[in-house]
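no rush on this but wanted to send it before i forget. theres a chain ive been looking at and ive put its sequence and its fold in token form underneath. i want to understand how the tokens follow from the sequence so walk me through it. thanks a lot i owe you, the record is right below:
>
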Amino acid sequence: MPIQSKPETFIYEYNIVIKGTDLLLTLDQTLPSAKDMESFRSLAQDWFSEDLYGYSALLLKNDAEIPANFTLCPIRRFFYEQKELVFITARAKSLLSQRQMYKFCPTCGDRLLDDKTESALFCPSCNIKFFPRIEPATITLISRGDEILLARGKRGTYKKFACISGFVEQGETLEECVAREVKEETNLEVKNIKYMGSTAWPFPDQLMLEFTADYAGGELKIQEDELEEARWFRRDQLPPPEDLPQPGSSAWNLIFGNGHLKNYDFRDDFEF
């Protein structure tokens, strides 16, 4: 089913409004209504509806003021608290981002249009469809006895300890990606690579594939242009919560979500 760009009316139960990496919610922590969506159009960069999944999505302008009786909720937090809405929210966020990034055909430069039959963009000159882009990445928690390896990245603004991660390259399997990224960034060898799950991560278009692995050898030596530091931590002596990944993320799932401290309510300690 096709995407409908900038509809005049909103008819669906689910209405996703994005500003940056945040989700707009009412003060009661519910999604906006169809009537709310109509009033937001003057504040929007873009909006669309997708009939196949029964939702509408709207991207607020960067300088738009937050409407009265609404508040912003970090999408990561929403993923943790409203798991039944992760799919629609992640899809809406990713598609809104891609609609901003990919407006013209990379071959001829003509403006891309909504395809008439599928959720894709279409170049009328080249007669080619461009489907939503997904970038798979692996993220791995490495164990050595009672210790786990956590690292802090050097690039970007995210400075918390997390797991080793990286994008899958052409031609390699997921397991090969795990081993390569670990070797490149830490100089370590791993074994017993085990798939644990996946998380949609629309910042802007990743699919995080979660793994665990056991230390197999090597001396820890970080890739200095990628990592600020990497250290072994005992599971009962982890860094403070403010230095750890937030609930809703793949790194949090690996560190805490697979049975470790499963009865602890992390919302009291973690800030989103």
Notes: Confidence is low (pLDDT under 50) at residues 259-268.
